[in-house]
Amino acid sequence: MDDASGQSIDQLLQGAASAWEQSWNHVLAWGTSPEFYAQFGAILLTVAFAWLIAAVLRARLPFWRKEPSARVRMPKLARLLFRLRGIAFPVLNIFMLSIAATVAQRTLEQNWLVLLAQGLAAVLLLYRLADKFVTSGMIRALALWVGIPVAVLHVFGWLDDVTEYLDSIQLSAGNIRISLYVLLRTLLFGAVLFWLGRLSNDVGKQAIRTRTSLDIGTREVFAKLFEIGLYVVLFLLLLQIMGINLTALAVFGGALGVGIGFGLQQIASNFISGIIILLDRSISIGDYIELEDGRIGQLRELNMRFAVLETYEGKDIMVPNEQFITTSYTNWTHKDPMQRYSLEFQVAYNTDLDLLFENIRQVCRDHPKVLSGDDYEFEIQPDAEIAGFGDSGIDILVEFWMMGIDDGKNRVGADLLHGIWRSIKEHGMQIPFPQREVRILNPVDQPGG
What DSSP designation does 370 have? Predict the structure, then answer.
């Protein structure tokens, strides 16, 4: 029994050694064949030619010569084009290897080594894309830890076997079947699609907003429609990736839409209000708006659901679009950025008002942001006048016009008050403070008086 077992083990070892020797001889024979050297030479020649063309393009194309500055017309698009120089060689390499594979198949009747090199070039391209263009940590991790391993499996011909195994791990409930492969595919492509959608949305909206031939309201409408259409397309693509039949989805889509409409009517109202605002141009980006409740800020963004008002205190006020339709508000700079402001203070009753008024007007005229001079009408010129007579002094009213809002970088009112105070001090005038005179009627005689 032991002899028979020993003989069987010896036979297995001899068979394995013989098979290994045959395989090695086959590989060695193929590795020294003319076909191998021909394909290997074609790969080297193709890689060198692709590298040479990429170097020439980087030296000749103007947007690849040097990194663009921030003063170009569309800086994001310019930087994107500049980063494309990093993938020029892998793309050209794949293209050249595909030509080499076709030529090798026709002349040598085999091209698997060239196809293997082409697959490795595709892996290199995927790595370059993840390294040069992906800023999101999640997408970069997916590309490095999922995309590249999948590409390697495809290169060596193992991808179909792995896919079949993942698809066999499934969960069924009636006619619904969800496999591990479908779930992983949906998560992977969903993340990639929405990352590409956000990147395309930023670039597309910037390209639309830089079209100076259109007014700002029209640009915002087109930017909003572009954003909506892009995400609708991405959503439909994701449904197709999940394997959901869109025809069957349309059957109950109407009833489902009615139910969702009741729950999302506020969101729909804000969305429609945003479209109306963009079309009637009641507010525009850059307008200085004061809400009914007293909050005030500059309109920085107008999104699908809300607008963003940026205050000079560094705060962002999120205002639903519907509020601009249903409530009143003040748009300080809607038609004309020129604004009138007033200052009030008191001087003593013995003040020379003629001299005071002339000094105040001169202080206002000397400020670079106050509108004055022969180019403006009399009503625009800075003025000072008596507003009333107070208990402690004369109330003085100062009026002036300026371009923009008297806040933030334009603190004109504070500068004028400082200048007026210096002028009052230089000319010996006084700003009164409350005084009371107390009189004692019918005083009572003090003891010992």
Answer: B
- pLDDT tens figures, 305-348: 888 999 988 889 999 988 888 888 888 887 788 889 999 999 99
Q: Is 283 left (phi over 0), alpha (psi -120 to 50) or beta?
A: beta
Whether the pLDDT of residue 179 is over 70: the answer is yes
To which residue do tokens 């990352």 refer? 195
| Average per-residue pLDDT for the chain | 78
Kindly report the number of other CB atoms within 10 A of residue 312's CB atom. Answer: 15
Q: Would you call 11 exposed, middle or buried from its count of C-beta atoms within 10 A (0-12, 13-18, 19+)?
A: exposed
**Both structure tokens of 3:** 């002899």
Torsion angle of alpha carbons 406, 407, 412, 416, nearest 10°? 100
Q: In this structure, are strands 176-179 and 338-347 parallel, antiparallel, or unpaired?
A: unpaired
Every domain of the chain and the residues it spans: 23-155, 338-426
Backbone angles phi, psi at 87, to 5 degrees: -110, 10
Residue 109, burial from CB neighbour count under 10 angstroms (0-12, 13-18, 19+): exposed
Closest CA to 339 of 393, 272, 287, 385: 287
DSSP-derived 3-state class of residue 76: helix
pTM assigned to the model = 0.46
Query: HSE-up of 299 (CA within 13 Å, CB side)?
Result: 27
The residue that leads in pLDDT, 404 or 86, is 404
Q: What average pLDDT does this structure show over 288-305?
A: 86
- R_g (Cα) of the chain, nearest Å: 39
10 Å Cβ neighbour count for 138?
10
Tell me the two tokens of residue 212. Answer: 């100076």
Task: Tell me the residue length of the chain.
Answer: 449
Top CATH class, 338-426: alpha beta
